[in-house]
Design goal:
Layout lengths: L9 H14 L14 H10 L13 H5 L2 H14 L7 E8 L4 E7 L2 H18 L16 H15 L1 E8 L3 H4 L2 H8 L6 H11 L3 E3 L2 E3 L12 H21 L7 E6 L2 E6 L2 H16 L11 E6 L15 E3 L2 E7 L5 E7 L1 H17 L5 H19 L5 H19 L10 H10 L19
Parallel strand pairs: 1-4
Antiparallel strand pairs: 1-2, 3-7, 3-8, 4-5, 6-7, 9-10, 10-11
Helix pairs in contact: 1-5, 2-5, 8-10, 12-14
């Protein structure tokens, strides 16, 4: 009806913020919090996972939803008035790599997740206009498989070269709070949002029964942590590499980054060594250090004579759970291949073994359901073209571990392979399959 304004939806607000950010790339926004209203919090609640672990207060999503409107209104009032107090983040430790070390994972309370999601929606609308194409981690419409595809295309187009494999030591634990807030203020100077970010950075960590307040780092697992990490590395690495490093190189180079995991591909060895020498200084300026053993330069060329295994860099490198190496195609041509990294395969099998051991007395229907989910999840990520051998090996090892722990349900009766085959015929496990076809033709140089 003429003269009757239509309601402003959350998507319309997001589009408006994104348009303004795109039109004014050098402008810092001073008024953004007014977009966060009750409707915005409802959308943030809708986007928040309801099946996650509970935070320090022990409140579940179901309990929070029992009085949802009142809870959201109270949350909005406290956030806008400055009375909101960020609760400490409950910390758990999950295995990392080969399982010998652990990675701290932060679990905020459910209400804190909702508010973090609401603020992340605002910041994301702004920073998605700034982030560069080399960044793939925790961004809408981007995935790890797209990063792998970009890497494959780059290496195929240049026929390889030199790959700088970089590992940032304890990135999420050493990220400097003051420096992060300074970087955020280059684009966002809204007092409400900055105050909330500061509260989350200083909320403290509940590890067991002790609450600590570290002056650096952001716990992995927080809703807003990946976005803050992207903002940090966007300035520290992405912009610096594109604007200052690449123009000074003799050959071509490409950065592919997924959160704090990244590699840089070079066509000329001299360029690679120059960047490798200056990279620790650049990161050290922002309080970050590179792992001296895991950061290495790999000569990754299809026509490279095979050196001894102990030579510098080897002939392969790892990124996002895959080992990348040169191999022959069915037609005999050299192509970049990928297979499941050995540490990721070992970790996945350890998790299956642990689950089978602890749940061997549960009903077969439940065991079959969970193992099916685990296998499909594994295929869903690692099921790429050329990785069939590793998928088959994983499926066979899962089958062996299931049989082993079914045999240990009682001391008297052992589950023979004949009996186990009957069980598998009744409860068939998913067969390995390729989910992602990543060997599309690379663009011409």
């Amino acid at each position: 009806m003429a003269g009757t304004p239509s309601p402003t939806t959350v998507s319309t607000k997001l589009q408006r913020i994104a348009t303004l950010a795109r039109q004014a790339p050098d402008t810092a926004f001073t008024t953004l919090a007014h977009h966060i209203d009750l409707e915005w919090l409802r959308e943030a609640y809708r986007r928040t996972r309801k099946d996650g672990a509970v935070g320090a207060d022990g409140q579940t999503a179901e309990q929070y939803a029992e009085n949802l409107e009142v809870n959201l209104q109270g949350l909005l009032n406290r956030a806008k008035s400055g009375l909101y107090r960020a609760p400490p983040v409950r910390r758990v430790h999950i295995p990392k790599g080969d399982g010998k070390t652990t990675r701290p994972l932060g679990i905020p309370t459910f209400e804190d997740k909702v508010l973090q999601r609401a603020v992340a929606m605002v910041l994301e609308a702004v920073y998605e206009q700034d982030f560069l194409p080399c960044s793939f981690g925790f961004r809408p419409g981007r995935s790890a498989h797209q990063a792998l595809q970009r890497l494959w295309e780059s290496l195929t187009r240049t026929r390889g070269g030199w790959v700088l494999e970089v590992d940032i030591r304890k990135f999420f634990d050493t990220l400097e709070h003051d420096r992060l807030q300074q970087l955020v203020q280059r684009r966002v100077r809204d007092g409400v949002l900055l105050r909330l970010i500061g509260k989350w950075l200083n909320a403290g960590v509940l590890d067991g029964k002790e609450v600590t307040h570290p002056d650096q780092g952001t716990p992995q697992g927080g809703v807003i942590s990946p976005l803050l990490a992207n903002i940090y590395l966007h300035e520290v690495l992405d912009v610096w590499f594109e604007r200052e490093v690449k123009p000074r190189l003799k050959g071509s180079a490409e950065l592919i980054r997924y959160a704090d995991d990244f590699v840089i591909c070079f066509t000329i060895e001299e360029d690679a060594r120059r960047v490798m020498a200056v990279l620790p200084k650049r990161f050290g300026k922002y309080g970050l250090t590179l792992h001296p053993e895991k950061t290495r330069l790999v000569e990754f060329r299809s026509n490279r004579p095979k050196p001894p295994r102990e030579a510098e860099g080897g002939r392969s490198f790892d990124l996002l759970g895959f080992t990348h190496y040169w191999g022959r195609s069915r037609r005999g041509a050299w192509v970049v291949k990928r297979k499941t990294a050995s540490n990721r395969l070992s970790r996945a099998l350890k998790q299956v073994t642990q689950w089978c051991r602890l749940n061997r007395h549960r009903p077969l229907t439940e065991q079959h359901r969970v193992l099916t989910q685990k296998l499909r999840g594994h295929y869903g990520y690692f099921g790429i073209t050329g990785n069939s051998k590793a998928l088959v090996a994983f499926a066979w090892e899962v089958r062996k571990r299931w049989h082993k722990w079914l045999s240990r349900r009682t001391r008297q009766a052992r589950t023979t392979w004949e009996k186990f085959d009957q069980i598998v015929r009744r409860f068939p496990l998913p067969k390995p399959r390729v989910v992602h076809s990543l060997y599309r033709r690379a663009a011409n140089p």
